[in-house]
Design a protein that fits this description.
This protein is of the alpha/beta class. The protein is 32% helix and 27% strand. It folds into two domains: 160 residues, NAD(P)-binding Rossmann-like Domain (Rossmann fold); 153 residues, Dihydrodipicolinate Reductase, domain 2 (2-Layer Sandwich), CATH 3.30.360. The structure holds NADP nicotinamide-adenine-dinucleotide phosphate.
Length: 348
């Protein structure tokens, strides 16, 4: 078997997360070399990648806004997309990569299970990816790992699974500023509710995708996915603050959200996501009702940004080794409890 010496990468979307991935790859990893970078922001395009990502030195790569040119000239092995949460947008953004035979890994939340939000596009781009022999994978820390892959993998050691409950309670104070902003930190409660109604605050994007992924892995047929309204978490007696915001009593310090996967008329999947300044203890917890019963807790909660960087970079070789198509994490890590007729999981 031939061993590759170096993976050539192009980065697309140099916001806080993209820049952090670039810094990590450049400063701490061997075997991945950037050959190009793309963004659409006029503040970023034309500048050196090292400067934009704050690597501390120039990398000799100008950030471009011309995907066709970058992909056809640099012929990378992988394109890393950290641009948007929405499938509709990211699929069209990644088309030039696919048509140039470039594998794609993205943190786009809806791409973790694209058949939920955009079934027609998932099918269309699955065919396109197969036509060009490339793999497309949506992943990240959550969705992509904590509230789906982790419980799925834990069910592997169970002979029976009745119900899965996953809680992520995050101290938002350690997250980047855009994250704190998008969970409404320092808003007044009425302002928060208006922002939810107008769609300015979406809550955690990915609960539907995580539930879909768990159900598919175990072979549970979902009657329905029910996502409850996003609710604010209000600071009560004391002021709380982060590097970026100060929250007075009565103001919003974060949000909470619950989602249910209804199977056989029961809520057999329950996800509870909450993120606010000063959450203590913070944790990620998976409880499996079944045999044996499982109660697995990671505390403090997994650091979302660092975890996302790790998941993306660690999966690059996996994506390159995987078969062509638009895949999900359970295509590449197919280990879980198998409900019902075990034979139906065999793909011939
Ligand atoms: N799955 C997970 O666990 C996970 C974890 C963390 C983050 N995420 C997601 O990953 C994405 C990136 O995070 P972030 O905080 O860095 O987001 P961000 O601040 O919105 O940065 C995105 C960057 O991509 C640029 N961009 C937008 N459309 C583009 C296009 N068509 N081509 C090239 N560049 C484009 C944006 O430019 P403009 O600013 O001009 O639009 C911006 O510079 C977000 O959607 C976030 O929700 C997922």
């Amino acid at each position: 078997m031939a061993i590759m010496e170096e993976i050539k990468a192009v980065h697309v979307g140099l916001g806080p997360l993209g820049s952090r991935i670039v810094r990590h790859i450049v400063e701490e990893r061997r075997g991945i070399r950037y050959v190009g970078a793309l963004d659409i922001s006029p503040d970023i395009v034309g500048r050196d990648l090292g400067e934009v990502a704050e690597v501390g030195r120039e990398l000799g790569i100008r950030v471009s806004d011309d995907p066709e040119k970058v992909f056809s000239e640099t012929k990378p092995d992988i394109a890393i997309y950290t641009t948007t949460s929405f499938a509709r947008d990211v699929f069209s953004q990644m088309e030039p990569a696919i048509r140039n035979g470039v594998n794609v890994i993205t943190t786009c939340e809806q791409l973790v299970y694209p058949r939920y939000a955009a079934p027609e596009l998932a099918e269309k781009y699955d065919s396109l990816a197969k036509q060009y022999g490339v793999t497309v994978l949506g992943t990240g820390i959550n969705p992509g790992f904590l509230m789906d892959v982790l419980p799925i993998v834990l069910t592997l050691g169970c002979t029976r699974v009745e119900r899965i409950e996953v809680t992520r309670r995050m101290d938002a104070g350690v997250r980047r500023k855009p994250f704190q902003k998008k969970i409404g930190v320092s808003m007044e409660p009425n302002e928060f509710r208006e922002a939810v109604s107008s769609g300015k605050i979406t809550g955690h994007v990915g609960l539907e995708e995580s539930i879909s992924l768990i159900a598919e892995a175990l072979g549970w047929k979902l009657d329905e996915i029910r996502v409850e309204r996003v609710e604010p978490v209000i600071a009560e007696e004391e002021e709380v603050s982060s590097q970026f915001f100060t929250v007075r009593p009565g103001q919003v310090k974060g949000l909470k959200q619950e989602a249910f996967g209804i199977v056989d008329g029961r809520d057999r999947i329950h996800l509870y996501f909450t993120a606010y300044l000063g959450a203590s203890p913070s944790f990620d917890e998976v409880r499996i009702e079944g045999s044996p019963p499982i109660n697995a807790r990671v505390s403090p909660c997994w650091h979302g940004d660092e975890g996302t960087v790790a998941v993306v970079v660690n999966l690059i070789p996996t994506v390159m080794n995987a078969p062509a198509g638009v895949l999900t994490m359970i295509d590449i890590i197919p280990v879980s409890f198998k409900s019902g007729n075990v034979a139906r999981f065999v793909r011939k």
